[in-house]
Amino acid sequence: xxxxxxxxxxxxxxxxxxxxxxxxxxxxxxxxxxxxxxxxxxxxxxxxxxxxxxxxxxxxxxxxxxxxxxxxxxxxxxxxxxxxxxxxxxxxxxxxxxxxxxxxxxxxxxxxxxxxxxxxxxxxxxxxxxxxxxxxxxxxxxxxxxxxxxxxxxxxxxxxxxxxxxxxxxxxxxxxxxxxxxxxxxxxxxxxxxxxxxxxxxxxxxxxxxxxxxxxxxxxxxxxxxxxxxxxxxxxxxxxxxxxxxxxxxxxxxxxxxxxxxxxxxxxxxxxxxxxxxxxxxxxxxxxxxxxxxxxxxxxxxxxxxxxxxxxxxxxxxxxxxxxxxxxxxxxxxxxxxxxxxxxxxxxxxxxxxxxxxxxxxxxxxxxxxxxxxxxxxxxxxxxxxxxxxxxxxxxxxxxxxxxxxxxxxxxxxxxxxxxxxxxxxxxxxxxxxxxxxxxxxxxxxxxxxxxxxxxxxxxxxxxxxxxxxxxxxxxxxxxxxxxxxxxxxxxxxxxx
Length: 497
Known about the structure:
GO terms for molecular function: medium-chain fatty acid-CoA ligase activity. Residues 9-357 form the AMP-dependent synthetase/ligase domain. It holds the Pfam family AMP-binding_C. 29% of the residues lie in helices and 27% in strands. The chain is of the alpha/beta class. The protein has 3 domains: 5-167, Rossmann fold, CATH 3.40.50.980; 223-347 and 371-393, ANL, N-terminal domain (Rossmann fold, 3-Layer(aba) Sandwich), CATH 3.40.50.12780; 396-491, 2-Layer Sandwich (GMP Synthetase, Chain A, domain 3). Helix 8 (225-233) packs across helix 9.
């Protein structure tokens, strides 16, 4: 069976001295250096008792040592669980209890949160070619059901227990190859790596795609608009990001008195994780002076399932046709569907998850007997076989008996020149659902709420217009930059009638 770490072996054989990783802690590694670091760490893991089909939990913020940990775990035959170190003790403890890892590794040198987790677990410092990490030894618990699994990625919902998505070696390899192909990566590329490697986008689209190609990943532990700007101006050629990251760097550049980025080496910019709207896409393309490519994927699909390849100025706001080897169809009779051509998006292909770890019931709900994954996203497929995402089925707002898709309302507000970004959610009130809009604006350039109401009145039917528009200097976001809609109403503190 081909395994993900074979990509690294192939790069070492082909170009051992080519740059692989650089990070904010000062690491500058070639592919041969990454290979040595992962060998060194694999020996540490084996000395700690790690066996094939064990789990290795990595409490991580992005750095070169964390990438070495991925390959080290795979070299021992174990399964890696990348988990964001900024999660709370309670969230970490749920994963510990469910996954029963043999060891926990922590990237304390780039993450105070990882250091805090290490302290409470009584972790010991280990050093080697990988640098310095913390290791907490636990009981070994090999599980033969994981023999073909490379990664367990835990999804964290607003309620209930997290689910561990089992991604196979073949699925991760497929996703890495697809990502490289979509971006037309070459070994000379420098890919910006701020998307957390604890998320499928950063792990597979960025790290695995770059390793397959032999490209260089410039890693930052945490996102900031200034760092992204500096990376772009410093020679990065590929920027994969989510819309919120693009919005923030556009605002940062505007505050520096510039309307365009003007990055000399940048050649490819992509957006994922949320639908695009035409006006915002035009703004972003004018800013980067490049086409903004869009795509669709999720943890359960090993990242991308579809993507665009459009020229600059294209009016296409779909997420593109499916990637080669992937199938998609629409279940128009699913909740939120119109019974004709809009409904839940189903996908099928070799990159789908094996299932949810130790959760047969959830697996049966998500995967049909004939191999389709129910994504929970609402969409449609146009006459050119391009997939359009309308929104999450769970986020659909039904107001006055009409379906309101949050991305459509967000698009109308994002078109306003003083709006940085926004999020639209529903709130149950008096037997109906109200439309609430949370709008991020600059402290020095704030529009009035009534001005925004008048603006969207020209763009939205009455039932789609927000009942309340709440202005804020910042909106709650995940480490990926993706806005956390479930936390929006908590911001209100009961202030709205």
